[in-house]
Structures are given as C-alpha cells and as structure tokens.
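Dear colleagues,

As part of the handover before I leave the project, I'm documenting each prediction I ran so the next person doesn't have to rerun anything. This entry is a single chain, and its sequence is reproduced below.
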Amino acid sequence: MKISLAKSAGFCFGVKRAIDMALKTSLSHKNVYVLGDIVHNEDVVREIEKTGIKKAKRLSSGKNKVFLIRAHGTSRQVIEKAKGLGYDIIDATCPMVKEIHRIVEEMDNRGRKIIVIGDKKHDEVRGIIGHAKQKAMVIDDKKNIPLAAIKKFKKACVVVQSTQNTEKVQEIVAILKKYIAELEFFNTICNPTRQRQEEVKKMPGQNDVMIIIGSKNSANTKRLYQISKSLNKKSHWVSQKEDIKAVWFKNAHSIGVTAGASTPESTTEKIISYIQALTSLTR
C-alpha cells in the first residue's frame, strides 16, 4: 500500500514570487498594506500577517505607506487610486496574470469586446475586467452564455482566468465562434495549471483514493478536485489534517495526493504524515 504525491503539487512560480516579495517588503518597510489575502491559503496568510503586513478592506491615506498588490492582481482603477492617495506601490501580481492585463488593454484599445472566461467573483477576474475601459463580459459556464448579447458582437477578444479548466474553456470558445465572426482567442491558462490538470487526469485512475489539498477559496484547487472527482468518486478536498476521515481509506491499497498552487509544502507534509499515521501506509 502506498501514498503517491503529484510532482506538480504545491507553490507555483507566481505564488512563490508574491510571497517572497511580501517577506522582502516587510523587512524594508513598516507600513505595508494589502487588499485581501496575498494568496488564497490560510496558512500563508497567517505567516504573512506575522511579519506585520496589514490586510485592509479599503485604501485610506497612503502617506509613508506601501500598497502591496497581491498575486491575483488588481484593477487599473485601484492602482490609480493608490497612487493618488500617496502610496508607494510594490506589484506582486503573477507575471502570467499581468500578461492577461496587457492583452485586455491592447484588445480594448482596438475596439474589441472583452470576454473573460472565469469565475465572476474571483479576485483575479475582477482585476482582469478592471483593465478594460469598456464593460467586459464574464462567462463562467457554457450553460450561462448570454447568446442574445453575444450575437450582437461583431469583434471580440476572449481571455481566460489563469486557473480555469482547459476542456471547459474549449467548449465555451467553440460556442462563441459560432456567433462571433471576428473572435480572437487567447488561451491564458497558465502552464503550472495545465501541468497540474494533466497530472490529476491520470492519478485518479491509478489510485483507490485521491486527496486534493488546498483552501476552499482557491480556484485552482477547486478545479483539481472537480477533475479528480469526475474520474474517481473517492476524491476528497481538504485544507488541513482535521478535515480527513479515516473511513475514506477503508480497503484502499493506494492513495494519490496533489495540492493547489497556493498550498505550502509544510501543509502537504503534515497531511501526508497524518494519513500515514491513520493507515500505516508507506510512501
């Protein structure tokens, strides 16, 4: 009996970069503020708060203060407001998300309607649509495509939230192409997301039980869980060892483990050790 950990599990480049920038900034500046969580993981957020970085709901006077833009990025309006309030700005936006912002700004300036495939309330998506001057459209599922509005578009550009499900995106784009004559599609799902999704398509068939580790507000972890669950009903999404139930592993011979892009290695190791203690499995 064995526990197998996915090679792609854990921090992606963008998350690690944002955390490193936050820690470095906390050493050189006293008054550092971030809107929301630096990344979507409770363990990471707690560690960042220990450094003295403060989480704010809104920006006030920025005199002698630093505004740290988190990994998910933010809108152009928020950046301009921060500058106007006097903040020094340190941008920890994932470079791959920054590229989506660039595409949106360029296509918007060319007069193309902006369509974003992603979760409507996700921080990354809010930041993306905030880089278009005109109102952008967000589509979260092929069932929710507003065809009446789509049929009126002559020219449009499609970008994708970086952690979306590849297959679902292709399905949505195929429908859009039927109705929009000039459709320019940029598949902006990031490479770490693609690698994780390809790996999690294989692991559920190779293991009796799948454990997906990550915060409940982590979009990329949610996608990994959805894919795994569709292939293996004995897939479970946990954020800490306390979420685990011994009954999951009854009669199991192999357990596959993967983790979202915001999940620290320490969290994954604790959960694996806990599973080993419960089941006496070898890794």
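Residues 13-28 form the longest helix (16 residues). The chain has three domains: 2-10+191-279, 13-93, 96-185.

All the best with the project,
I.
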